[in-house]
């Protein structure tokens, strides 16, 4: 079967902190697929499509985390519990542009 993805994926899990719109709580999670277009996030809660998410992604090989604003595209139950959530990047931003972190 041919892969229909537009962007190549980085095949490693990365630590992510995220905060959804309307929430003051920052959650720790893990990105399981990441590309220049978005990521698949392992979460404890299910997120509604269309919801805005602020993200902080850490790469071990690169100094400092990266920050992004994303939109939930899909969310479904994950094997073993929790949820897998597809997030499309809307903008890559600086830490100063995300006052939540």
Biggest beta sheet attributes: 6 strands, antiparallel, barrel
Total number of distinct structural domains: 1
- Name of the CATH homologous superfamily: predicted glycosyltransferase like domains
Strand arrangement across the biggest beta sheet:
1-2-3-6-5-4
| Number of β-strand runs | 6
Beta-strand residue fraction: over 45%
Folded structure, characterized:
This protein has 101 residues and is an all-beta fold. The protein has a single domain (14-95), classed as Thrombin, subunit H, CATH 2.40.10. Helices cover 0% and strands 50% of the residues. The chain has no helices and 6 strands. It has strands spanning 14-20, 27-34, 38-43, 52-57, 66-77, 83-93. It has a 6-stranded antiparallel beta barrel with strand order 1-2-3-6-5-4. The chain starts with 13 loop residues before the first strand and ends in an 8-residue tail after the last strand. The model has no long low-confidence stretch (mean pLDDT 82).
List the helices and strands and how they pair.
Elements: E1 14-20, E2 27-34, E3 38-43, E4 52-57, E5 66-77, E6 83-93
Antiparallel strand pairs: 1-2, 1-4, 2-3, 3-6, 4-5, 5-6
